[in-house]
From TrEMBL:
Pfam families: TIR_2. InterPro entries: TIR_dom (IPR000157), Tol-interleuk_rcpt_adapt_Tirap (IPR017279), Toll_tir_struct_dom_sf (IPR035897). PANTHER family: TIRAP (PTHR22662), TOLL_INTERLEUKIN-1 RECEPTOR DOMAIN-CONTAINING ADAPTER PROTEIN (PTHR22662:SF0). GO terms for biological process: positive regulation of canonical NF-kappaB signal transduction; positive regulation of chemokine (C-X-C motif) ligand 2 production; positive regulation of tumor necrosis factor production; toll-like receptor 4 signaling pathway. It comes from the Eukaryota. One of its GO terms (cellular component) is cytoplasm. Residues 83-212 form the TIR domain. This is TIR domain-containing protein. GO terms for molecular function: Toll-like receptor 2 binding; Toll-like receptor 4 binding. Residues 37-58 have a biased composition (Low complexity). Residues 23-78 are annotated as: Disordered.
Length: 214
């Protein structure tokens, strides 16, 4: 067909005819697409039975597995042994003998409560205020041996206020033990919590022990 010229046209040379044949027989080549030029999000048709595909951020950030601690849930010490003492006994200097009897009662028996008695357990050479604050914060409960001597002693009042600041509110951690006083002499700072009457059986020692155990 290439050798038949139209009217008024010169016939093409065989070389030019071969060139046209080769040009028409060539297939267009596709330009390779680099990863950088490829679109980041390509929507894929999903069938009703196939789960929805996750985005790129979901693949890069897997859901973390929750970690579990020890038996108490936090991996640390808990319960009774989380503090050094079960009871810190606050008393006046003139009531030392009564405080020693109370401590002996609490430390004896099956309970074997760990008590802090300042004149016995304070660190020699330590500051008095620092030793008291450390003992209060290191004890689960504070027993206030409230007597006439306790009310007269400014240092005992400081102990009482410090104990209340360590456990504010009626949390059962501060246990007043009234001895030798009428109800009217009960300190106003403690009116929102019950006290143990030292005139009861065993001078109230058993009630104090039961309160600490609770």
């Amino acid at each position: 067909m290439w050798n038949l010229p139209g009217p008024g046209m010169k016939p093409m040379s065989p070389a030019l005819v071969d060139w046209f044949r080769q040009a028409l027989s060539r297939k267009p080549t596709k330009k390779p697409v680099s990863p950088e030029s490829a679109p980041s999000d390509v929507s894929q048709p999903s069938s009703p039975d196939s789960p929805p595909s996750l985005g790129r951020s979901s693949e890069a950030s897997p859901i973390p597995t929750p970690s579990h601690g020890g038996a108490d849930g936090g991996g640390g010490s808990s319960g009774r042994w989380s503090k050094d003492y079960d009871v810190c006994v606050c008393h006046s200097e003139e009531d030392l003998a009564a405080a020693q009897e109370l401590v002996s009662y609490l430390e004896g028996g099956a309970a074997s409560l760990r008590c802090f008695l300042q004149l016995r357990d304070a660190t020699p050479g330590g500051a008095i205020v620092s030793e008291l604050c450390h003992a209060l914060s290191s004890s689960h409960c504070r027993v206030l041996l409230i007597t006439p001597g306790f009310l007269r002693d400014p240092w005992c009042r400081y102990q009482m206020l410090q104990a209340l600041s360590e456990a504010p509110g009626a949390e059962g951690r501060t246990i007043p033990l009234m001895s030798g006083l009428s109800r009217a002499a009960y300190p106003a700072e403690l009116r929102y919590m019950y006290f143990v009457d030292g005139r009861g059986p065993e001078r109230g020692f058993r009630q104090v022990r039961e309160a600490v155990m609770r």
